[in-house]
Each structure stands twice: as structure tokens, then as C-alpha cells.
Amino acid sequence: MTIGGPKGPTGPKPPLAPPGADKAARPDSARGSDAPRFADALQGGAPTARADQANAGGAVDAIAAKLDAGELNAQQAAQLLVDEIVAARPGLDAAAQKRLRDALAAQLDDDPQLAAALRSLGGGG
Questions:
Q1: Which end of the chain is more exposed for a tag (fewer CB within 10 A), N or C?
Q2: Is residue 9 included in any domain, yes or no?
Q3: DSSP classification of residue 71
Q4: What pLDDT digit, counting tens, does each position of 25-49 carry?
């Protein structure tokens, strides 16, 4: 009698994936340009949100450059960043903008890590 080596796993096989299931796991470029992005679906399908985020990135870079050049202190830079965040949401009414601004300001004041980060930039917290 001979004893054989390992035969590999046995048991039930995984179910077959439905046609096109692998397509959902691929990046946007692989799915095709007509496929909606998950982030756009969450934001109401507004592709302009990506453009706004890109513009905000330029504003953040400009604020960082002014901070590095000493034209702003950390507290001023933080306030400008809050302004940029609120401005990037044009669909908010005045009351919602105020609530967002207040929530961000409270987070900057109450979060010890953010406060420490602001202090390390030289503007206090």
C-alpha cells in the first residue's frame, strides 16, 4: 500500500460570479467613461464636485505658500482653510454654512491633535 502526498483542498467550490461582476471591482478607467463613480453617486452624481476639489487643492497650495512665506500665521491659515471648505459647498444655505463653519471651528479648537498641529506651525491653537 502506498501513501500519497497532499491532494489539495477539497470541498464545496465557491459560487460563480455573475457576468460583469469583475467589472465593478475595476478602476474607473477600466469600467469605461460612462460608468458613474461611487463618490459621484454619494454626492448626487455631480462630476463638478471633482473639479471643485481640484480648485480647492490650488487654494490650499496658495495658503500653504503664504504660510511658508510668513505672510500668514497658522490661525489665519486655518481660518482661510475653513473659508475654502465652506465655499466649496455652494449648495448650502446661509444657516448650513454657519453650522459647517462653527463645526469646523469647534473641531479646530477642541481636537488636541489639531491644536498641537496649529501650535507647531507657530500660530497657537
A1: N
A2: no
A3: S
A4: 555 455 455 556 666 665 554 544 4
Phi-psi category of residue 20: left, alpha or beta, with phi > 0 → left and psi -120 to 50 → alpha: left
Spell out the residues 6+ positions from residue 122 whose beta carbon is closer than 8 angstroms to its own: 73, 74
Domain extent for 103: 42-121
Q: What is the mean pLDDT of the chain?
A: 73
21 within domain boundaries: no
* pLDDT value of position 39: 60
Residue type, 53: Q
Please state, in angstroms and rounded to a whole number, the distance separating the CA atoms of residues 69 and 76: 13
How many structural domains compose the chain? 1
Residue 8 lies in a domain: no
Q: How far is CA 11 from CA 4, 8, 14, in A?
A: 19, 10, 9
Instruction: Kindly indicate the confidence band of residue 4, based on its pLDDT and cuts at 50, 70 and 90.
Output: confident
pLDDT bin (cut points 50, 70, 90) of residue 125 is: very low
